[in-house]
Amino acid sequence: MADIHPPDTLSTVPPTPAGLLSNREKDTLIERAFTGLYRWYTARSQETRNWNADLSFDWRSLRADLPEDVITVIQGFFAVEQYAPDYTSELLNLVRASHGRSHFQMRWGSEEEKHADAWENAVLFSRQRTPEWIREYKERLKSKQWELPFPDAIHNLVYTVFQERATQLNYLNLMKIAQGKSDKPHLQGVEDPILAQVAQTIAIDEAAHYNFFLEGVRLYLYYYPQKTLEAIKNVIGQFSMPAQQLVPDWDHFFETVYKAGIYGPRDFSRDVMQVAFRNLGIESRKKLEEGIKKTREVPDFEGEQARTTIIWDTFDYGAIEGDVKRLHVKIQDYEKKIGLDELDPTEFVENPEVPRAKPGE
Ligand SMILES: [Fe+2]
Ligand SMILES: [Fe+2]
């Protein structure tokens, strides 16, 4: 179905050249893939990660003598996660018209809510904060409201990829400390199998979140490379962890996390940005910035074609096409299990704008 535009705006809508996908067609394909991925994700989440914040851990056995630095870290993790209702409602509202994305956002919210509850239990059972103190702290946190870091869906989607990876890294590094593997002198001998189990369980959820949002960004990158690469550039240019402005004593928390070897600017660049870049077929931040700059420098008279050629050179589009195809195979395998393949299968449609190697090249 064609887009419907009021007659007086018709001349400003660029026509879709013959043989290319219209934006509407692209959006439909992205939406279908998101819905398929969401269904696959939900089944997998229920099958493999159906834990409970109260019952899945032996809370009574959590150590009561953890060092103050560890408590500061856990308390900060709790503070960030307890904004789950804000994160969910804001993001949900942004993508409410998309079945796959809005339903996913609710599922995601239900998992983030478990993270908040598990970290709260960890703070409480550490026995170093009283229930009254925790109640007051929560009140203080909830008196402020988290807002979207970016106004549009694509930037927030990209932001979430980096944020989920950074969060996963934070939890994995706390897990190592709780396993007695820290190389920091002040964190020797703080083994706590329960804390390690909590951190690991939540980190596995964060990895699943990262993967969902990553697949989403790949879809956008494949069908809308220019817009998506610009969003990636903007997001990494001003990345910070969520709720940084809302949590009291953030600087103290951040310094403790840094001193503990859990997370800092170097970890972001090496273990968050570089990892996400590799997964998105982007060689480096420099290459990304140069590519975008070059597309802007293309003189008007050379037209859209020259600009498009440069953008495809900015990332490994062959790898991304492979990833998007693999995602569709995963969705199709899932649909076969149910019989959806007979009624309404999700199909991969090639983006004709992707440069193809000529025979002999
Ligand atoms: Fe979380
Ligand atoms: Fe998450």
UniProtKB/TrEMBL annotation:
Which SUPFAM superfamilies does the UniProt record give?
A: Ferritin-like
Cofactor requirement = Fe(2+)
* Keywords of this entry: Fatty acid biosynthesis, Fatty acid metabolism, Iron, Lipid biosynthesis, Lipid metabolism, Metal-binding, Oxidoreductase
Question: What highest taxon heads this organism's lineage?
Answer: Bacteria
Q: Would the keyword Nucleus be found if you checked this record's keyword annotation?
A: no
GO molecular function annotations of the record: metal ion binding; stearoyl-[ACP] desaturase activity
Summarize the subunit comment. Answer: Homodimer.
Identification of the protein by name = Fatty acid desaturase
Q: Which organism does this sequence originate in?
A: Deinococcus cellulosilyticus (strain DSM 18568 / NBRC 106333 / KACC 11606 / 5516J-15)
